[in-house]
Amino acid sequence: MKIWNGIVMAAVALPLLTSAAFAQEDAKLKTLVVAVPSDPVALEPGTNKAEPIGSEIILNVFDTLVAWTAPDFKALEGRLASSWTVSDDGKVFDFKLREGVKFQDGTAFDAAAVKFSLERTKATNPYVKATFDLIKEITVVSPTELKITLSAAYPAFLSILAQPQAGIVSPAAVEKYGDKFASHPVGTGPFAFKSAQADTNVVLEANPAYFRGAPKLSQIIYRVIPDASTRRLELENGGVDIVQQQGQLSAIAAQDIEALKANKDVKVLETSSQIIRQLEFNNSKTDGPFSNVKAREAIAHAIDYDGLLQGVFGGTAERVYGPLTTNSWAFNPKMKELAPKYDPELAKKLLAEAGINPSSLNLKLYSFQGPLWGAVATFVQANLADIGINATIEQTEFPALRTLQTSGQFDVALDGRQPWYNDPDAHITIGYLSSLANTAMTFRMPQDKALDDMILKAQQTPDMEARKQLYFTIQEEIAKRVPGAYLFSPKLIVFARSNVEGLVVNSAPPLNEYWSVSKK
What pTM was computed for the model? Predict the structure, then answer.
Protein backbone atom coordinates (compact mmCIF):
# COMPACT_ATOMS: atom_id res chain seq x y z
CA MET A 1 0.00 0.00 0.00
CA LYS A 2 2.81 2.34 0.91
CA ILE A 3 4.47 1.49 -2.40
CA TRP A 4 1.33 2.41 -4.37
CA ASN A 5 0.91 5.53 -2.38
CA GLY A 6 4.42 6.44 -3.30
CA ILE A 7 3.78 5.74 -6.97
CA VAL A 8 0.55 7.71 -6.92
CA MET A 9 2.25 10.63 -5.20
CA ALA A 10 5.13 10.47 -7.64
CA ALA A 11 2.68 10.37 -10.52
CA VAL A 12 1.01 13.49 -9.14
CA ALA A 13 4.24 15.24 -8.24
CA LEU A 14 5.99 14.65 -11.56
CA PRO A 15 3.58 16.76 -13.63
CA LEU A 16 3.72 19.45 -10.95
CA LEU A 17 7.50 19.46 -10.98
CA THR A 18 7.54 19.37 -14.76
CA SER A 19 5.04 22.20 -14.90
CA ALA A 20 7.08 24.22 -12.42
CA ALA A 21 10.25 23.55 -14.38
CA PHE A 22 8.59 24.66 -17.61
CA ALA A 23 7.28 27.78 -15.92
CA GLN A 24 10.73 28.54 -14.55
CA GLU A 25 12.35 28.03 -17.94
CA ASP A 26 9.69 30.14 -19.66
CA ALA A 27 10.23 32.94 -17.14
CA LYS A 28 13.97 32.78 -17.80
CA LEU A 29 13.42 33.01 -21.54
CA LYS A 30 11.16 36.01 -21.02
CA THR A 31 13.70 37.82 -18.83
CA LEU A 32 16.69 39.67 -20.27
CA VAL A 33 19.53 40.33 -17.84
CA VAL A 34 21.82 43.20 -18.80
CA ALA A 35 25.09 43.59 -16.89
CA VAL A 36 26.03 47.18 -16.08
CA PRO A 37 29.02 48.50 -14.12
CA SER A 38 27.17 50.90 -11.81
CA ASP A 39 23.79 52.27 -10.86
CA PRO A 40 22.09 54.42 -13.49
CA VAL A 41 21.97 58.17 -13.02
CA ALA A 42 18.89 60.26 -13.72
CA LEU A 43 16.14 57.92 -14.93
CA GLU A 44 14.07 60.67 -16.43
CA PRO A 45 14.53 63.10 -19.35
CA GLY A 46 14.38 66.24 -17.25
CA THR A 47 17.68 65.53 -15.51
CA ASN A 48 19.47 63.07 -17.78
CA LYS A 49 22.96 64.18 -18.84
CA ALA A 50 23.84 61.39 -21.27
CA GLU A 51 25.01 58.93 -18.63
CA PRO A 52 24.84 55.69 -20.67
CA ILE A 53 22.93 53.34 -18.34
CA GLY A 54 20.23 55.79 -17.31
CA SER A 55 19.91 56.98 -20.92
CA GLU A 56 19.29 53.47 -22.22
CA ILE A 57 16.67 52.82 -19.56
CA ILE A 58 14.96 56.09 -20.51
CA LEU A 59 14.74 55.02 -24.17
CA ASN A 60 12.98 51.82 -23.08
CA VAL A 61 10.58 53.47 -20.61
CA PHE A 62 9.83 56.66 -22.56
CA ASP A 63 9.11 57.36 -26.21
CA THR A 64 10.28 60.36 -28.20
CA LEU A 65 8.46 62.09 -31.06
CA VAL A 66 10.91 60.62 -33.57
CA ALA A 67 13.56 57.88 -33.46
CA TRP A 68 16.37 56.56 -35.63
CA THR A 69 15.34 53.74 -37.94
CA ALA A 70 16.99 50.33 -37.50
CA PRO A 71 19.05 48.64 -38.77
CA ASP A 72 21.36 51.33 -40.16
CA PHE A 73 20.06 54.27 -38.08
CA LYS A 74 20.66 56.84 -40.82
CA ALA A 75 17.09 58.16 -41.09
CA LEU A 76 14.48 59.28 -38.61
CA GLU A 77 11.05 57.67 -38.30
CA GLY A 78 7.95 58.78 -36.45
CA ARG A 79 7.49 57.35 -32.98
CA LEU A 80 4.92 59.37 -31.00
CA ALA A 81 4.69 61.66 -34.03
CA SER A 82 2.95 60.11 -37.02
CA SER A 83 4.21 62.80 -39.43
CA TRP A 84 5.70 66.28 -39.54
CA THR A 85 6.57 69.18 -41.83
CA VAL A 86 9.29 71.83 -41.64
CA SER A 87 8.89 75.42 -42.84
CA ASP A 88 11.08 76.74 -45.64
CA ASP A 89 13.08 78.91 -43.25
CA GLY A 90 13.77 75.87 -41.03
CA LYS A 91 12.26 77.46 -37.92
CA VAL A 92 8.76 75.94 -37.65
CA PHE A 93 8.02 72.22 -37.14
CA ASP A 94 4.39 71.02 -37.36
CA PHE A 95 3.73 67.57 -35.90
CA LYS A 96 0.75 65.25 -36.13
CA LEU A 97 0.67 62.89 -33.14
CA ARG A 98 -0.50 59.31 -32.80
CA GLU A 99 -3.97 58.80 -31.39
CA GLY A 100 -4.98 56.37 -28.66
CA VAL A 101 -1.55 56.19 -26.97
CA LYS A 102 -1.58 55.83 -23.17
CA PHE A 103 1.08 56.45 -20.57
CA GLN A 104 1.95 53.51 -18.32
CA ASP A 105 -0.18 55.10 -15.55
CA GLY A 106 -3.24 54.91 -17.82
CA THR A 107 -3.46 58.63 -18.62
CA ALA A 108 -3.77 59.77 -22.21
CA PHE A 109 -0.86 60.97 -24.35
CA ASP A 110 -1.58 64.18 -26.25
CA ALA A 111 -0.02 67.39 -27.55
CA ALA A 112 -0.28 69.02 -24.12
CA ALA A 113 1.93 66.26 -22.70
CA VAL A 114 4.55 66.92 -25.40
CA LYS A 115 4.53 70.65 -24.67
CA PHE A 116 4.75 69.95 -20.93
CA SER A 117 7.65 67.51 -21.35
CA LEU A 118 9.82 69.55 -23.71
CA GLU A 119 9.32 72.80 -21.78
CA ARG A 120 10.10 70.97 -18.54
CA THR A 121 13.35 69.54 -19.92
CA LYS A 122 14.32 72.94 -21.30
CA ALA A 123 13.81 74.47 -17.85
CA THR A 124 15.49 71.75 -15.78
CA ASN A 125 18.23 70.14 -17.84
CA PRO A 126 21.38 72.23 -18.48
CA TYR A 127 22.84 69.42 -20.58
CA VAL A 128 20.52 70.36 -23.47
CA LYS A 129 20.78 74.11 -23.00
CA ALA A 130 22.64 74.57 -26.30
CA THR A 131 19.81 73.00 -28.29
CA PHE A 132 16.60 73.34 -26.27
CA ASP A 133 17.22 77.05 -25.76
CA LEU A 134 16.53 77.41 -29.49
CA ILE A 135 12.88 76.50 -28.80
CA LYS A 136 11.04 79.80 -28.90
CA GLU A 137 7.49 78.55 -28.54
CA ILE A 138 5.52 75.30 -28.39
CA THR A 139 1.87 75.60 -29.40
CA VAL A 140 -0.84 72.99 -28.83
CA VAL A 141 -2.97 73.23 -31.98
CA SER A 142 -5.24 70.34 -31.01
CA PRO A 143 -4.85 67.16 -28.91
CA THR A 144 -3.10 65.54 -31.86
CA GLU A 145 -1.35 68.54 -33.44
CA LEU A 146 1.65 70.47 -32.17
CA LYS A 147 3.74 73.35 -33.52
CA ILE A 148 7.32 74.04 -32.38
CA THR A 149 8.88 77.36 -33.36
CA LEU A 150 12.62 77.91 -33.08
CA SER A 151 14.36 81.26 -32.63
CA ALA A 152 16.77 80.34 -35.43
CA ALA A 153 17.07 77.69 -38.09
CA TYR A 154 18.57 74.52 -36.67
CA PRO A 155 18.95 71.71 -39.22
CA ALA A 156 19.68 69.08 -36.56
CA PHE A 157 16.59 69.81 -34.45
CA LEU A 158 14.69 66.65 -35.38
CA SER A 159 17.74 64.65 -34.31
CA ILE A 160 17.61 66.37 -30.93
CA LEU A 161 14.04 65.18 -30.50
CA ALA A 162 15.25 61.58 -30.76
CA GLN A 163 17.52 61.92 -27.70
CA PRO A 164 16.60 60.54 -24.25
CA GLN A 165 16.28 64.10 -22.92
CA ALA A 166 13.38 64.61 -25.35
CA GLY A 167 11.39 61.69 -23.93
CA ILE A 168 7.73 62.46 -23.26
CA VAL A 169 6.77 62.15 -19.58
CA SER A 170 3.38 61.63 -17.98
CA PRO A 171 2.28 65.06 -16.65
CA ALA A 172 0.03 63.32 -14.11
CA ALA A 173 2.96 61.28 -12.78
CA VAL A 174 5.18 64.37 -12.55
CA GLU A 175 2.45 66.12 -10.57
CA LYS A 176 2.01 63.06 -8.34
CA TYR A 177 5.68 62.41 -7.55
CA GLY A 178 7.15 65.91 -7.86
CA ASP A 179 10.92 65.91 -7.37
CA LYS A 180 10.75 62.13 -6.79
CA PHE A 181 9.71 61.52 -10.39
CA ALA A 182 13.14 60.10 -11.28
CA SER A 183 12.41 57.32 -8.76
CA HIS A 184 8.98 56.71 -10.32
CA PRO A 185 9.49 57.40 -14.05
CA VAL A 186 6.37 57.02 -16.20
CA GLY A 187 6.36 57.20 -19.98
CA THR A 188 4.61 55.54 -22.92
CA GLY A 189 7.48 53.13 -23.72
CA PRO A 190 7.49 49.35 -24.16
CA PHE A 191 8.76 48.74 -20.63
CA ALA A 192 7.58 50.28 -17.35
CA PHE A 193 9.82 50.98 -14.38
CA LYS A 194 9.16 48.43 -11.61
CA SER A 195 11.88 48.76 -8.97
CA ALA A 196 15.47 49.73 -8.23
CA GLN A 197 17.86 48.68 -5.49
CA ALA A 198 21.09 50.61 -5.06
CA ASP A 199 24.25 48.77 -6.17
CA THR A 200 22.09 45.75 -7.11
CA ASN A 201 19.62 46.17 -9.96
CA VAL A 202 16.94 48.07 -11.84
CA VAL A 203 13.91 46.08 -12.97
CA LEU A 204 11.63 46.99 -15.89
CA GLU A 205 8.48 45.06 -16.77
CA ALA A 206 6.72 44.82 -20.11
CA ASN A 207 4.02 47.34 -20.98
CA PRO A 208 1.34 45.03 -22.48
CA ALA A 209 -0.61 48.02 -23.83
CA TYR A 210 2.36 49.46 -25.75
CA PHE A 211 1.08 51.14 -28.91
CA ARG A 212 3.52 49.30 -31.21
CA GLY A 213 2.56 45.97 -29.65
CA ALA A 214 3.59 44.27 -26.42
CA PRO A 215 7.33 43.48 -26.10
CA LYS A 216 8.43 39.88 -26.58
CA LEU A 217 10.22 39.99 -23.22
CA SER A 218 8.29 40.24 -19.97
CA GLN A 219 11.10 41.72 -17.92
CA ILE A 220 14.49 43.41 -18.17
CA ILE A 221 16.88 43.32 -15.22
CA TYR A 222 19.86 45.66 -15.22
CA ARG A 223 22.29 43.93 -12.85
CA VAL A 224 25.03 46.05 -11.32
CA ILE A 225 28.34 44.17 -11.66
CA PRO A 226 31.22 46.62 -11.14
CA ASP A 227 34.04 44.24 -12.02
CA ALA A 228 34.62 43.66 -15.74
CA SER A 229 36.06 40.19 -15.20
CA THR A 230 32.95 39.17 -13.27
CA ARG A 231 30.74 40.52 -16.07
CA ARG A 232 32.63 38.36 -18.54
CA LEU A 233 32.30 35.25 -16.35
CA GLU A 234 28.57 35.86 -15.83
CA LEU A 235 28.11 36.18 -19.58
CA GLU A 236 30.01 32.97 -20.27
CA ASN A 237 28.07 31.11 -17.59
CA GLY A 238 24.67 32.42 -18.67
CA GLY A 239 24.12 34.52 -15.56
CA VAL A 240 23.61 37.57 -17.75
CA ASP A 241 22.44 37.89 -21.36
CA ILE A 242 23.99 41.19 -22.41
CA VAL A 243 27.24 42.99 -21.63
CA GLN A 244 27.89 46.31 -23.34
CA GLN A 245 31.13 48.15 -23.86
CA GLN A 246 29.17 51.42 -23.59
CA GLY A 247 31.83 53.31 -25.48
CA GLN A 248 34.39 51.40 -23.45
CA LEU A 249 33.51 53.24 -20.27
CA SER A 250 33.08 49.82 -18.69
CA ALA A 251 35.36 47.98 -21.00
CA ILE A 252 36.21 44.36 -21.29
CA ALA A 253 39.91 44.01 -22.10
CA ALA A 254 40.91 43.37 -25.74
CA GLN A 255 42.23 39.88 -25.01
CA ASP A 256 38.92 39.02 -23.36
CA ILE A 257 37.07 40.23 -26.46
CA GLU A 258 39.04 37.79 -28.60
CA ALA A 259 38.19 34.98 -26.19
CA LEU A 260 34.49 35.87 -26.28
CA LYS A 261 34.52 35.90 -30.10
CA ALA A 262 35.72 32.29 -29.95
CA ASN A 263 32.95 31.26 -27.53
CA LYS A 264 30.03 29.62 -29.38
CA ASP A 265 27.65 30.57 -26.60
CA VAL A 266 28.38 34.27 -27.09
CA LYS A 267 27.95 36.53 -30.08
CA VAL A 268 29.77 39.82 -30.49
CA LEU A 269 27.94 42.64 -32.25
CA GLU A 270 30.11 45.59 -33.32
CA THR A 271 29.96 48.66 -35.53
CA SER A 272 31.98 51.85 -36.08
CA SER A 273 31.05 54.82 -33.97
CA GLN A 274 31.50 58.59 -33.88
CA ILE A 275 32.62 58.38 -30.26
CA ILE A 276 35.81 60.28 -29.45
CA ARG A 277 38.01 59.57 -26.44
CA GLN A 278 40.68 62.06 -25.55
CA LEU A 279 43.20 63.31 -23.08
CA GLU A 280 41.68 66.70 -22.38
CA PHE A 281 43.03 69.78 -20.68
CA ASN A 282 41.09 72.02 -18.35
CA ASN A 283 41.04 74.83 -20.90
CA SER A 284 39.29 77.27 -18.58
CA LYS A 285 42.27 77.46 -16.24
CA THR A 286 44.26 80.66 -16.64
CA ASP A 287 47.17 79.40 -14.55
CA GLY A 288 49.14 76.17 -14.43
CA PRO A 289 51.28 74.57 -17.13
CA PHE A 290 48.52 73.93 -19.64
CA SER A 291 47.44 77.54 -19.95
CA ASN A 292 50.39 77.68 -22.38
CA VAL A 293 49.51 76.29 -25.80
CA LYS A 294 53.07 75.03 -26.32
CA ALA A 295 52.71 72.83 -23.24
CA ARG A 296 49.47 71.41 -24.65
CA GLU A 297 51.18 70.81 -28.00
CA ALA A 298 54.00 69.02 -26.18
CA ILE A 299 51.56 66.58 -24.58
CA ALA A 300 49.82 66.01 -27.91
CA HIS A 301 53.16 65.05 -29.51
CA ALA A 302 54.10 62.83 -26.56
CA ILE A 303 51.31 60.31 -27.27
CA ASP A 304 52.10 57.24 -29.38
CA TYR A 305 48.69 57.04 -31.08
CA ASP A 306 49.42 54.06 -33.32
CA GLY A 307 51.04 52.19 -30.45
CA LEU A 308 47.95 52.79 -28.35
CA LEU A 309 45.62 51.40 -31.03
CA GLN A 310 47.77 48.36 -31.69
CA GLY A 311 48.91 47.59 -28.17
CA VAL A 312 45.77 48.23 -26.16
CA PHE A 313 42.79 47.90 -28.49
CA GLY A 314 43.63 45.05 -30.82
CA GLY A 315 41.46 46.28 -33.69
CA THR A 316 38.53 47.46 -31.59
CA ALA A 317 39.24 51.19 -32.03
CA GLU A 318 40.26 53.63 -34.76
CA ARG A 319 42.47 56.75 -34.95
CA VAL A 320 40.91 60.18 -34.41
CA TYR A 321 42.59 63.18 -36.05
CA GLY A 322 40.61 66.05 -34.59
CA PRO A 323 37.22 67.15 -33.25
CA LEU A 324 35.28 64.85 -35.64
CA THR A 325 35.71 61.21 -36.57
CA THR A 326 36.56 60.25 -40.14
CA ASN A 327 33.06 58.79 -40.70
CA SER A 328 31.34 62.11 -39.98
CA TRP A 329 29.86 63.74 -43.09
CA ALA A 330 31.63 66.97 -42.07
CA PHE A 331 35.11 65.50 -41.46
CA ASN A 332 37.83 67.68 -42.98
CA PRO A 333 40.39 65.38 -44.71
CA LYS A 334 43.07 67.99 -44.07
CA MET A 335 42.92 67.06 -40.38
CA LYS A 336 44.93 63.92 -41.11
CA GLU A 337 47.88 66.16 -42.02
CA LEU A 338 47.30 68.63 -39.18
CA ALA A 339 46.94 66.03 -36.43
CA PRO A 340 49.91 65.84 -34.03
CA LYS A 341 52.31 62.99 -34.65
CA TYR A 342 54.17 60.99 -32.05
CA ASP A 343 57.49 62.78 -31.54
CA PRO A 344 58.91 62.71 -27.98
CA GLU A 345 61.90 64.90 -28.90
CA LEU A 346 59.61 67.58 -30.33
CA ALA A 347 57.49 67.30 -27.17
CA LYS A 348 60.56 67.97 -24.99
CA LYS A 349 61.53 70.92 -27.20
CA LEU A 350 58.04 72.43 -26.91
CA LEU A 351 58.12 72.09 -23.12
CA ALA A 352 61.45 73.92 -23.06
CA GLU A 353 60.03 76.69 -25.26
CA ALA A 354 57.14 76.97 -22.81
CA GLY A 355 59.64 77.41 -19.98
CA ILE A 356 58.52 74.22 -18.26
CA ASN A 357 60.85 71.79 -16.53
CA PRO A 358 59.01 68.47 -16.98
CA SER A 359 60.43 67.04 -13.76
CA SER A 360 58.58 69.81 -11.90
CA LEU A 361 55.20 68.47 -13.10
CA ASN A 362 53.31 65.95 -10.96
CA LEU A 363 49.98 65.39 -12.67
CA LYS A 364 46.86 63.59 -11.52
CA LEU A 365 45.58 61.76 -14.57
CA TYR A 366 41.86 61.17 -14.01
CA SER A 367 40.22 58.29 -15.84
CA PHE A 368 37.07 56.19 -15.92
CA GLN A 369 37.05 52.82 -14.19
CA GLY A 370 37.60 49.48 -15.89
CA PRO A 371 40.64 47.51 -17.03
CA LEU A 372 40.70 48.93 -20.55
CA TRP A 373 40.61 52.53 -19.32
CA GLY A 374 43.28 51.52 -16.84
CA ALA A 375 45.38 50.24 -19.72
CA VAL A 376 44.88 53.50 -21.66
CA ALA A 377 45.82 55.56 -18.61
CA THR A 378 48.91 53.42 -18.03
CA PHE A 379 49.93 53.80 -21.68
CA VAL A 380 49.56 57.59 -21.54
CA GLN A 381 51.36 57.67 -18.20
CA ALA A 382 54.33 55.89 -19.79
CA ASN A 383 54.32 58.31 -22.74
CA LEU A 384 54.41 61.24 -20.32
CA ALA A 385 57.22 59.59 -18.35
CA ASP A 386 59.22 59.36 -21.58
CA ILE A 387 59.32 63.16 -21.75
CA GLY A 388 60.06 63.48 -18.04
CA ILE A 389 56.55 64.12 -16.66
CA ASN A 390 55.33 62.17 -13.63
CA ALA A 391 51.60 61.35 -13.67
CA THR A 392 49.54 59.50 -11.06
CA ILE A 393 46.48 57.64 -12.33
CA GLU A 394 43.17 58.30 -10.53
CA GLN A 395 40.41 55.99 -11.82
CA THR A 396 36.93 56.89 -10.64
CA GLU A 397 33.28 56.08 -11.31
CA PHE A 398 31.47 57.91 -14.12
CA PRO A 399 29.32 60.23 -11.93
CA ALA A 400 32.26 61.24 -9.72
CA LEU A 401 34.51 61.95 -12.69
CA ARG A 402 31.78 63.97 -14.37
CA THR A 403 31.39 66.05 -11.20
CA LEU A 404 35.14 66.73 -11.11
CA GLN A 405 35.06 67.87 -14.70
CA THR A 406 31.99 70.08 -14.55
CA SER A 407 33.42 71.78 -11.47
CA GLY A 408 36.82 72.23 -13.14
CA GLN A 409 38.79 70.41 -10.47
CA PHE A 410 41.43 68.87 -12.72
CA ASP A 411 44.32 69.69 -15.04
CA VAL A 412 44.20 66.69 -17.37
CA ALA A 413 41.68 63.86 -17.68
CA LEU A 414 40.77 61.02 -19.96
CA ASP A 415 37.30 61.72 -21.20
CA GLY A 416 35.12 61.53 -24.27
CA ARG A 417 31.83 62.15 -25.92
CA GLN A 418 29.21 59.92 -27.48
CA PRO A 419 27.38 61.90 -30.17
CA TRP A 420 23.77 60.79 -30.11
CA TYR A 421 22.86 62.03 -33.56
CA ASN A 422 24.64 62.04 -36.89
CA ASP A 423 25.51 65.71 -37.06
CA PRO A 424 28.79 67.54 -36.28
CA ASP A 425 26.79 69.78 -33.99
CA ALA A 426 26.79 66.91 -31.48
CA HIS A 427 30.56 67.21 -31.01
CA ILE A 428 31.35 70.79 -31.95
CA THR A 429 28.71 72.90 -30.24
CA ILE A 430 28.53 71.08 -26.95
CA GLY A 431 32.24 70.35 -26.80
CA TYR A 432 33.71 73.71 -27.75
CA LEU A 433 31.17 76.54 -27.35
CA SER A 434 32.60 78.58 -24.48
CA SER A 435 29.20 79.47 -22.98
CA LEU A 436 28.74 75.75 -22.24
CA ALA A 437 32.13 75.31 -20.56
CA ASN A 438 30.67 74.44 -17.16
CA THR A 439 28.22 71.82 -18.42
CA ALA A 440 28.93 68.13 -18.94
CA MET A 441 31.29 66.62 -21.54
CA THR A 442 32.92 69.82 -22.71
CA PHE A 443 36.53 70.90 -23.16
CA ARG A 444 35.82 73.81 -20.79
CA MET A 445 36.79 76.25 -23.54
CA PRO A 446 37.58 79.85 -22.53
CA GLN A 447 35.67 82.79 -24.01
CA ASP A 448 36.56 82.98 -27.69
CA LYS A 449 34.18 85.19 -29.70
CA ALA A 450 35.61 84.33 -33.11
CA LEU A 451 35.30 80.57 -32.55
CA ASP A 452 31.94 80.85 -30.76
CA ASP A 453 30.44 82.90 -33.62
CA MET A 454 31.64 80.38 -36.16
CA ILE A 455 30.21 77.45 -34.18
CA LEU A 456 26.80 79.08 -33.87
CA LYS A 457 26.76 80.01 -37.56
CA ALA A 458 27.53 76.43 -38.56
CA GLN A 459 24.86 75.15 -36.20
CA GLN A 460 22.16 77.36 -37.73
CA THR A 461 23.02 77.45 -41.44
CA PRO A 462 20.29 75.59 -43.39
CA ASP A 463 22.42 74.92 -46.50
CA MET A 464 24.23 71.64 -45.81
CA GLU A 465 27.19 72.27 -48.12
CA ALA A 466 27.73 75.67 -46.54
CA ARG A 467 27.57 74.03 -43.12
CA LYS A 468 30.13 71.47 -44.19
CA GLN A 469 32.60 74.17 -45.25
CA LEU A 470 32.08 76.01 -41.97
CA TYR A 471 32.80 72.84 -40.03
CA PHE A 472 35.95 72.31 -42.12
CA THR A 473 37.23 75.71 -40.92
CA ILE A 474 36.11 75.11 -37.34
CA GLN A 475 38.06 71.85 -37.14
CA GLU A 476 41.23 73.65 -38.22
CA GLU A 477 40.63 76.49 -35.75
CA ILE A 478 40.06 74.09 -32.88
CA ALA A 479 43.24 72.18 -33.79
CA LYS A 480 45.25 75.42 -33.43
CA ARG A 481 44.00 75.78 -29.84
CA VAL A 482 44.99 72.19 -28.87
CA PRO A 483 42.20 71.63 -26.32
CA GLY A 484 43.24 68.00 -25.93
CA ALA A 485 44.97 65.02 -27.50
CA TYR A 486 42.46 62.95 -29.51
CA LEU A 487 43.27 59.34 -28.65
CA PHE A 488 40.86 56.91 -30.31
CA SER A 489 37.32 56.13 -31.47
CA PRO A 490 36.05 52.84 -30.02
CA LYS A 491 33.78 50.57 -31.99
CA LEU A 492 30.37 49.98 -30.49
CA ILE A 493 30.44 46.45 -29.13
CA VAL A 494 27.69 44.45 -27.49
CA PHE A 495 28.24 40.92 -26.18
CA ALA A 496 25.12 38.78 -26.11
CA ARG A 497 24.32 35.18 -25.31
CA SER A 498 23.79 33.27 -28.54
CA ASN A 499 20.08 32.74 -27.79
CA VAL A 500 19.35 36.50 -27.77
CA GLU A 501 17.63 37.52 -31.00
CA GLY A 502 16.50 40.78 -32.57
CA LEU A 503 19.12 43.02 -31.00
CA VAL A 504 20.52 45.68 -33.33
CA VAL A 505 23.34 47.94 -32.14
CA ASN A 506 22.13 51.50 -32.32
CA SER A 507 24.84 54.00 -33.17
CA ALA A 508 22.79 57.18 -32.87
CA PRO A 509 22.33 57.30 -29.97
CA PRO A 510 24.55 54.37 -28.98
CA LEU A 511 21.86 52.88 -26.75
CA ASN A 512 19.84 49.69 -27.16
CA GLU A 513 16.08 49.41 -27.42
CA TYR A 514 14.72 46.01 -26.35
CA TRP A 515 11.15 46.16 -27.65
CA SER A 516 11.87 43.67 -30.48
CA VAL A 517 14.39 41.51 -28.60
CA SER A 518 13.62 37.93 -27.58
CA LYS A 519 15.37 34.81 -26.30
CA LYS A 520 14.97 31.36 -27.80
Answer: 0.76
